[in-house]
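Propose amino acids for all 163 sites.
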């Protein structure tokens, strides 16, 4: 059983984010780009390249954590529950699959306990920095970034850019 815990730990650290987190971030960035009216799940799925059925489950989870609001009926759809300037990347990540800090030895070594070795201390330090960066970054800031690579490509996939 202990081997299974270690495998899960390394898989999580190796990838950092689950597919659900990635899909949730894509969806909320899309919604932040379209705050004028509720968006249809099918439109969000197409724009973010997320399977519609999977996206529906992710959106339900985001609704439960009050990140999005789901509106039924004519004119219904999905919208952010708060303004993009009030939602951080960390809010979204924590709503789906919170960052797991390393508090005890992931190898279960009794001699380490809560005193992490140099490797795991540095790994946890990196997670701490990432957590702080995500806590300090709102969706509005992502959209205002001057990086020429616009989130979700903003429908510019068909453009040919000069090298």
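Proposal:
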């Amino acid at each position: 059983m202990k081997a299974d815990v270690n495998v899960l730990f390394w898989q999580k650290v190796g990838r950092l984010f689950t597919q659900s987190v990635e899909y949730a971030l894509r969806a909320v960035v899309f919604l932040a780009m379209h705050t004028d009216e509720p968006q249809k799940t099918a439109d969000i799925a197409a724009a973010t390249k997320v399977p519609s059925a999977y996206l529906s489950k992710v959106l339900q989870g985001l609704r439960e954590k009050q990140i999005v609001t789901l509106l039924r009926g004519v004119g219904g759809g999905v919208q952010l529950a708060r303004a993009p300037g009030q939602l951080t990347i960390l809010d979204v990540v924590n709503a789906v699959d919170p960052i797991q800090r390393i508090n005890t030895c992931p190898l279960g070594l009794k001699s380490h306990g809560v005193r992490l070795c140099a490797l795991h201390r540095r790994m946890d330090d990196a997670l701490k920095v990432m957590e702080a960066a995500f806590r300090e970054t709102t969706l509005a800031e992502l959209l205002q970034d001057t990086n020429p690579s616009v989130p979700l490509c903003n429908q510019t996939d068909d453009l040919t850019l000069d090298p």
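The chain has one domain: 2-146. The two ends are 51 Å apart (CA to CA).
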